[in-house]
Amino acid sequence: MAVSTASQLFFYAFACILIVLPRPAFGITRHYKLEIKMQNVTRLCHTRSIVSVNGQFPGPRLVAREGDRLLIKVMNHVPNNISMHWHGIRQLRSGWADGPAYITQCPIQTGQSYVYNYTVVGQRGTLWYHAHISWLRSTLYGPIIILPKYGVPYPFEKPYKEVPMIFGEWFNADPEAIINQALQTGGGPNVSDAYTINGLPGPLYNCSAKDTFKLRVRPGKTYLLRLINAALNDELFFSIANHTVTVVEADAIYVKPFETDTILIAPGQTTNVLLKTKPKYPSATFLMTARPYVTGQGTFDNSTVAGILEYEQPRNAKAIHSKTSIKNLPLFKPVLPALNDTNFATKFVNQLRSLDSKKYPANVPKEVDQKFFFTVGLGTNPCSTKNQTCQGPNGTMFAASINNISFTMPTAALLQSHYFGRSNGVYRTDFPFDPLFPFNYTGNPPNNTMVSNGTKLLVLPFNTSVELVMQDTSILGLESHPLHLHGFNFFVVGQGFGNFNPKKDPKNFNVVDPIERNTVGVPSGGWVAIRFLADNPGVWFMHCHLEVHTSWGLKMAWLVLDGDKSNQKLLPPPADLPKC
Ligand SMILES: *[C@@H]1O[C@H](CO)[C@@H](O)[C@H](O)[C@H]1NC(C)=O
Ligand SMILES: *[C@@H]1O[C@H](CO)[C@@H](O)[C@H](O)[C@H]1NC(C)=O
Ligand SMILES: *[C@@H]1O[C@H](CO)[C@@H](O)[C@H](O)[C@H]1NC(C)=O
Ligand SMILES: *[C@@H]1O[C@H](CO)[C@@H](O)[C@H](O)[C@H]1NC(C)=O
Ligand SMILES: *[C@@H]1O[C@H](CO)[C@@H](O)[C@H](O)[C@H]1NC(C)=O
Ligand SMILES: *[C@@H]1O[C@H](CO)[C@@H](O)[C@H](O)[C@H]1NC(C)=O
Ligand SMILES: *[C@@H]1O[C@H](CO)[C@@H](O)[C@H](O)[C@H]1NC(C)=O
Ligand SMILES: *[C@@H]1O[C@H](CO)[C@@H](O)[C@H](O)[C@H]1NC(C)=O
Ligand SMILES: *[C@@H]1O[C@H](CO)[C@@H](O)[C@H](O)[C@H]1NC(C)=O
Ligand SMILES: *[C@@H]1O[C@H](CO)[C@@H](O)[C@H](O)[C@H]1NC(C)=O
Ligand SMILES: *[C@@H]1O[C@H](CO)[C@@H](O)[C@H](O)[C@H]1NC(C)=O
Ligand SMILES: *[C@@H]1O[C@H](CO)[C@@H](O)[C@H](O)[C@H]1NC(C)=O
Ligand SMILES: [Cu+2]
Question: Quick one: 178 and 322 in the same domain?
Answer without folding.
Answer: yes
